[in-house]
Amino acid sequence: MQYKMENPVVGKNGIERYQCKITWRNGTFIADEPVKSGGKDLGPDPYTLLLSSLASCTMITLRMYIERKGWTVPEIMVKANLWQEKKEEITKTIIDRDITFPGAELDTKQKDRLMEIAQNCPISKILEGDIKVRSFVHHDEPVEQTIKYANDDITVLWKPSFCKHAARCVTQLPSVFDIKAKPWTNAYGAPSDMIIEQVQRCPTGALSYIKNHE
Ligand code: SF4
Fold this sequence. Notes:
Low-confidence stretches: none
Oligomer: single chain
Distance between the termini: 33 Å
Number of domains: 2
Order of helices and strands: EEEHEEHHEEHHE
Helix content: 25-40%
Structural class: alpha+beta
CATH topology of the largest domain: GMP Synthetase, Chain A, domain 3
Strand content: 15-25%
CATH class of the largest domain: Alpha Beta
Bound molecules: iron/sulfur cluster
CATH superfamily of the largest domain: K homology (KH) domain
Strand order of the largest sheet: 1-2-3
Shape: elongated
């Protein structure tokens, strides 16, 4: 399993209602709630961010295709909104995406093709595909049982009670973490810096490490 993004999107929220500082690859921005929901409207709300993701992906994908085709399209405009209906405890969400090409001379065939391209943009595929959100809470409280796996430089500490076996470590560094092996962690299976990097990705706090010579 390889994540799509080299680094995760990181959000931090303090007690200031409801500002969330979002750190992305090249900077930060604020997400907030509108005043009517108790925020200060200092940045886009989560629904706006979701729709912006679809709108921007649509435009970028279309622009790439248009450039490849050499068509003259001075502007692409996307309007996105969503509505929801609840039936028997199941909430259905419908996103409407309206696409226009102001000032472009495109015939029906070209517009139909652009519609197909838009429907296949990566974010459309995510939203319309099989999508699941997995959530983990990070623990750092002490527990009784901690199992240690050492190599010459570091000792990997594993707290089984926190391990959810979501298998992030197993899929990302199988030469070290292998649930079929005994013991399941081989601290000699990769260079120590790679092991440290993987340990730091454990979402539950089940894995941590100490340096042996400090
Ligand atoms: S990443 Fe952490 S929680 Fe997931 S399987 Fe490995 S040790 Fe367990």
